[in-house]
């Protein structure tokens, strides 16, 4: 066996390294993603690279000089290289060696001598070698530079630091100056095809080699110089061939760099019924329930219990945190959904398409509410702002600022003329939308206000917080003769002539409080469609249902309350002294009016208790017969429940729960033909169709940590239709599941601790399990016929057990079943021979336990993923670590190779799925989509799709497409995204103070600056420049034409045959309506003037009058001061003043004429038919509501008559006595 020890030092001298970081000019350290150098240099600089906080990958090359040339030739801005010795080049860090006293040594063990390559240069190193026994090690110089022999027979070689080493051990510089003498035997040995030159040991001024003589030294040189002289001539002739070989090697490198890969893209996501970040709501028909499912909105048919539609953003607009945070439905088919990035999307629920995207908020949208007509949408956000959106015009109207904390809920009042907002700053604010200012601030809450709502008749507003009571307010609708209009008789206090100007603007007036049953904070308060029920959902498992009494009952209850109060006083012997004696019996507390409060109007009816914590509630707008209401609940365990509310009690009518797990998905496993997918969770195993995402079977089980679908050939003798699967649980049991029948056949007590891993043994009838009880067990399949059963079934039996020293986390079997790898809690991986269980290799290097590992199909590589966030790629032949990659920002949870390749996928707690090339150690793709930790991963046999499971309860499928991509392009994309995010952050930090406190009731612009608005501004400026050049060309052509020298005019092909004016108008028309405001704000004043010069021509197009008016208004508001002080703009503004007013009046007249004609047609159709010209559905609902009110009134009158009869009988009996 040959033992080789390599010591790294600059110029191969035994002194400490002075390494420096090299990079291209202008590159900053924080943008560098990898460091390229020789492995020895990288090892010496490992500590300092870590101290510099460089999040870089280490990449190994043959030599440092070649690495620098490679970086410079390819203009790699994300790479650095290390080099030893002083240099004149630009460098980022000097003296990055670990320490002067540290010497790095590498020991390579090989059964055969390692022959240097001849097709490329070999790195110069110090080599200690011996070929016989355990004799004394000696030193031989092995270099890639050319060696020569001078006239005196001295052997010389040029070193990496420019010095020349002589045969006597002395060192000379390039000028021949002596540099000192070192002990040891030195000779130049040139790598050649024939093999290595082995030197005999000799004594050169040292007592270390006392057994050596001078004859040995002379014999060594006589044997060494002769072949060197012979090889000198041959090397000169071989130089052209070597150059060709080097060029060929470079071309191979370049070809490898441009290798194309196939892209993976998200294809399907299933398993999520309802997520916890958003509310649920019914659509206007009441047949469908809108439930958030992470980044999607699911439309569930309530009666059928199936998801009929999925409203998902386009793949181009997806982001890492694009989760639905709020949903609102209008009276039409439109649905609004708010997202975590602050965007609002308007959907058509019937078509399932996104109508528009509204960008304005800088934080997650927390509240959405339509007005009654559905023409306005109000949104509140975590950025403390409220934005009013024009749904028809698809644009933002204005932004309302004033709250000091996140907005939690919104409600329209007075036919959409006013808006009430609640916030975590403990205040309610009433906004006048016509004047766009805050007209009232309501205080009184002691904690954050989480929800508000009003009844359909707009009589009461209720607010819920963490306080123990619900607060109610009466709503003042308007003023009649200067006096406020009452919403309920007896509800107002009579002021003693104290009507001040403050009461004139008082919209909300405190009505009273109701004590709640639960101590948890209020999450949602909501009235039903008819307004007779109020639901209060708390942040727990209960919903309190209150019934709102009518006016007569409320007065009667208030009167009874006062009578009971009087009786208590009289019972205590207290005498009430009043001015009018006994004439005021039955009057209120004030003595002149009956005071009705909130407890008199609202009465607790029922309490709905769910099995898990409730996230959101919603009343169905359609009330079934014989029921008061239908209530939908979303629970935090991925379940939808529906309750029917009656006078006697509440009943659970439906639950949607089979389409997803109750908790996070811990493992996913594909069958051998990729037709079935098994997922495990804490209480159930589900079988899915991975292509459609439909749930086929649900089997109750223990806490499943790992699973395996047994290949068909393992149980060919068993009569089955669906197959079998194994599940390892946290309790240490193995569950054998019959997939066809969906039952658990047997529970085997396999281990004393949790079963962490299951691995099938290839080409054999068995599998291996690893557990926390330190055992690795080998199992075999058996077919047995149980007593009392006519058919045979599958069972397993333990055949071997291997005891380990620590908890077993993962087990893996090589494809040829030769090795078994076991990852232990002590951060190491032990590799054993599978047949004899003898120890083979120990892979150590991870700083935290290995959580996952995989072996490639050819058995050459094994990759391990650890809690230290790193992936390590090892060779399974010698156990050497090929590469350590900083892969994820958190623990690596699963890793797996694509079949028959060295490509691999890894997932981690950082929510990312990453695609790697294990040969090049390159990151190929980063797949974003999960909203929580990703636990597990499965890859199909053909590698055409992968499946991942996450803590967010979703199972996602990623399909391989036919779209090729290149590594360098992906790196450039990532760099561009990084630069763009840095620019955005710098802009925000520079111009927007973080602790900005808005003015009281301030109004601001609705939109926000995005990448789309910046791009649109650039396109408009380009269009203006092109149009201006074209106008100059036209003017020159006209001038030449007047002179008689003009040729035929050739228009610019870029303008698509449009005139300059129409070309600029086309660029403006392509801007999204919501982005037009921010796009025009970014235009410089000269370009704004040029646009205004085109407005006169654009007004002649009747279809663009609205757009032209918006552009003119926005530019005038933005550049008002500059326009006033610019003399050249005055004639243009004067012309626009006359033209725009006339065009707007013409459009207004046309709209008025059309509306009058439609009204006339409506009257004609109504006169010809017996029925009224209105929606039959709304008429039917109105008739039902009236009918229910009549029934309630009849029941109430009957009860009152019965009570009166009882009272009369009791009073008559008392008089008779």
Q: Helical region count?
A: 16
| Percent range of helical residues | 10-25%
Q: Which percent band covers the strand fraction?
A: 25-35%
Estimated radius of gyration = 41 Å
Q: Assign the structural class, choosing from mainly alpha, mainly beta, alpha/beta, alpha+beta, or little secondary structure.
A: alpha+beta
**Integer average pLDDT:** 78
Low-confidence stretches: 1-17, 85-107, 120-214, 479-484, 489-502, 575-592, 991-995, 1212-1217
Largest sheet: 5 strands, mixed
Strands of the widest sheet, in order across it, are: 7-1-8-9-15
Could you say which overall geometry the principal axes of the C-alpha atoms support?
A: flat
Main location: nucleus
Biased composition (Basic residues): 557-569
Family: Belongs to the WD repeat WDR3/UTP12 family.
Region (Disordered): 152-184, 233-252, 557-590, 1191-1217
Description:
This protein is α+β, with helices and mostly antiparallel strands and 1217 residues long. The protein is flat, with a radius of gyration of 41 Å. The strands form 18 sheets. The chain has a five-stranded mixed β-sheet with strand order 7-1-8-9-15, with no helix packed on it. The protein has a five-stranded mixed β-sheet with strand order 4-3-5-2-6. Strands 10-11-12-13-14 form a five-stranded antiparallel β-sheet. Helix 9 packs antiparallel against helix 10 (1060-1069), helix 12 (1085-1098) packs antiparallel against helix 13 and helix 12 packs across helix 15 (1129-1168). The chain is 23% helix and 35% strand. A hairpin with a 5-residue loop joins strand 33 and strand 34 (460-465). The protein has 16 helices and 74 strands.
């Amino acid at each position: 066996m040959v033992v080789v020890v390599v010591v790294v030092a600059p110029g191969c001298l035994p002194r400490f390294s002075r390494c420096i970081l090299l990079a291209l000019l202008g590159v900053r350290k924080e943008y560098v993603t990898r460091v390229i150098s020789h492995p020895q240099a990288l090892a010496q600089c490992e500590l300092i690279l870590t101290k510099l906080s460089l999040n870089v990958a280490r990449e190994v090359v043959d030599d440092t000089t070649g690495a620098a040339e490679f970086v410079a030739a390819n203009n790699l801005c994300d790479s650095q290289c290390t080099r030893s010795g002083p240099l004149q080049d630009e460098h980022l860090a000097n003296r990055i060696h670990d320490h002067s006293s540290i010497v790095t040594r590498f020991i390579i063990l090989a059964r055969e001598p390692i022959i240097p390559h001849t097709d490329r240069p070999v790195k110069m190193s110090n080599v200690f070698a011996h070929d016989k026994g355990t004799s004394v090690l000696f030193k031989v110089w092995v270099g890639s530079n050319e060696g020569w022999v001078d006239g005196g027979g001295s052997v010389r070689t040029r070193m990496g630091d420019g010095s020349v080493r002589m045969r006597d051990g002395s060192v000379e510089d390039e000028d021949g100056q002596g540099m000192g003498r070192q002990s040891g035997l030195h000779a130049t040995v040139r790598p050649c095809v024939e093999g290595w030159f082995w030197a005999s040991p000799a004594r050169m001024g040292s007592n270390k080699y006392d057994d050596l003589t001078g004859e040995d030294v002379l014999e060594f040189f006589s044997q060494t110089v002769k072949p060197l002289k012979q090889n000198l001539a041959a090397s000169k002739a071989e130089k052209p061939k070597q150059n060709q070989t080097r060029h060929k090697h470079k071309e191979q490198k370049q070809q490898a760099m441009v290798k194309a890969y196939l892209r993976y893209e998200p294809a399907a996501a299933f398993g999520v019924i309802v997520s916890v970040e958003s509310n649920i709501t019914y659509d206007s028909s009441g047949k469908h329930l809108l439930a958030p499912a992470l980044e999607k909105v699911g439309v569930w048919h309530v009666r059928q219990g199936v998801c009929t539609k999925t409203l998902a953003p386009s793949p181009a607009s997806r982001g890492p945190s694009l989760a639905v945070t709020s949903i609102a439905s209008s009276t039409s088919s439109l649905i609004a959904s708010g997202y975590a990035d602050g965007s609002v999307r308007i959907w058509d629920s019937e078509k399932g398409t996104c109508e528009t995207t509204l960008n304005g908020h800088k934080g997650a949208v927390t509240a959405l509410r339509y007005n009654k007509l559905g023409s306005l949408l109000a949104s509140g956000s975590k950025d403390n702002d409220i934005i009013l959106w024009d749904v028809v015009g698809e644009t933002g109207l204005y932004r309302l600022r004033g709250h000091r904390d996140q907005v939690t809920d919104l409600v329209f009042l007075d036919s959409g003329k006013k808006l009430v907002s609640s916030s975590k700053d403990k205040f309610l604010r009433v906004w006048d939308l016509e004047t766009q200012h805050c007209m009232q601030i309501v205080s009184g809450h002691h904690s954050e206000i989480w929800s508000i709502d009003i009844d359909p008749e707009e009589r009461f507003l209720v607010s819920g917080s963490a306080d123990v009571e619900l607060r109610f307010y009466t709503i003042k609708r308007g003023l009649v003769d200067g006096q406020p209009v009452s919403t309920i008789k007896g509800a107002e206090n009579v002021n003693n002539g104290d009507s001040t100007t403050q009461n004139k603007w008082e919209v909300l007036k405190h009505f009273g409080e109701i004590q709640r049953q639960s101590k948890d904070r209020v999450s949602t308060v909501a009235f039903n469609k008819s307004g007779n029920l109020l639901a209060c959902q708390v942040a727990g498992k209960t919903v309190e249902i209150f019934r709102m009494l009518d006016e007569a009952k409320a007065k009667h209850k208030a009167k009874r309350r006062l009578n009971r109060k009087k009786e208590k006083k009289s019972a205590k012997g207290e005498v009430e002294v009043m001015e009018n004696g006994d004439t005021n019996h039955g009057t209120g507390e004030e003595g002149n009016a009956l005071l009705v409060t909130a407890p008199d109007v609202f009465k607790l009816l029922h309490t709905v208790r769910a099995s898990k914590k409730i996230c959101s509630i919603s009343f169905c707008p359609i009330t079934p017969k014989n029921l008061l209401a239908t209530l939908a609940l979303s629970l935090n365990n991925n379940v939808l429940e529906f309750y029917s509310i009656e006078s006697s009690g509440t009943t659970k009518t439906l639950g949607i729960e089979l389409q997803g797990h109750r908790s996070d998905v811990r493992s996913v496993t594909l069958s051998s033909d990729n037709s079935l997918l098994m997922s495990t969770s804490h209480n159930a195993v589900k079988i899915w169709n991975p292509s459609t995402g439909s749930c086929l079977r649900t089997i109750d089980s223990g806490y499943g940590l790992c699973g395996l679908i047994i290949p068909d050939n393992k149980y060919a003798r068993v009569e089955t239709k669906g197959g079998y699967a194994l599940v390892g649980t946290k309790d240490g049991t193995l569950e054998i599941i019959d997939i066809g029948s969906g039952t658990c056949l047997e529970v085997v007590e396999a281990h004393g601790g949790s079963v962490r891993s299951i691995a099938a043994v290839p080409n054999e009838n068995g599998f291996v399990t690893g557990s926390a009880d330190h055992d690795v067990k080998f199992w075999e399949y058996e077919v047995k016929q149980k007593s009392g059963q006519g058919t045979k079934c599958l069972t397993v039996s333990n055949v071997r057990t291997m005891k380990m020293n620590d908890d077993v986390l993962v087990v893996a079997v090589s494809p040829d079943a030769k090795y078994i790898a076991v990852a232990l809690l002590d951060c190491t991986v032990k590799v054993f021979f599978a047949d004899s269980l003898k120890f083979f290799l120990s892979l150590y290097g991870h700083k935290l336990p290995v959580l996952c590992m995989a072996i490639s199909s050819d058995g050459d590589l094994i990759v391990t993923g650890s809690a230290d966030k790193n992936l390590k790629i090892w060779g399974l032949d010698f156990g050497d670590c090929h590469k350590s990659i900083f892969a994820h920002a958190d623990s690596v949870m699963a890793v797996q190779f694509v079949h028959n390749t060295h490509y691999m996928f890894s997932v981690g707690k950082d929510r990312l799925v990453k695609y790697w090339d294990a040969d090049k150690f390159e990151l190929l793709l980063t797949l974003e989509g999960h909203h929580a930790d990703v636990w597990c991963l499965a890859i199909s046999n053909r590698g055409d799709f992968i499946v991942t499971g996450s803590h967010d309860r979703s199972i996602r499928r990623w399909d391989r497409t036919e779209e090729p991509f290149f590594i360098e392009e992906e790196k450039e994309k990532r760099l561009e995204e990084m630069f763009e995010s840095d620019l955005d952050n710098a802009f925000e930090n520079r111009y927007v103070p973080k602790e900005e406190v808005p003015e009281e009731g301030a109004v601001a612009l609705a939109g926000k600056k995005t990448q789309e608005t910046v791009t649109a501004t650039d396109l408009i400026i380009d269009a203006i420049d092109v149009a201006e050049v074209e106008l100059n060309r036209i003017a020159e052509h006209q001038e030449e034409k007047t002179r008689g020298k003009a040729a035929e005019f050739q228009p610019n092909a870029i303008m698509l045959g449009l005139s300059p004016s129409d070309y600029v108008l086309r660029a403006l028309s392509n801007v999204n309506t919501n982005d037009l405001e921010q796009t025009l704000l970014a235009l410089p004043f000269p370009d704004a003037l040029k646009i205004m010069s085109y407005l006169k021509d654009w007004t002649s197009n009747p279809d663009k009058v609205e757009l032209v008016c918006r552009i003119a208004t926005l530019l005038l508001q933005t550049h008002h001061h500059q326009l006033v002080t610019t003399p050249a703009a005055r004639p243009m503004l004067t012309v626009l003043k006359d033209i725009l007013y006339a065009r707007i009046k013409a459009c207004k007249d046309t709209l008025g004429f059309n509306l009058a004609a439609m009204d006339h047609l409506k009257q004609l159709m109504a006169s010809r038919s017996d029925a009224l010209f209105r929606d039959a559905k709304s008429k039917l609902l109105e008739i039902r509501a009236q009918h229910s009110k009549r029934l309630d009134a009849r029941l109430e009158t009957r009860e009152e008559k019965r009570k009166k009869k009882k009272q009369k009988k009791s009073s008559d009996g008392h008089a008779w006595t």
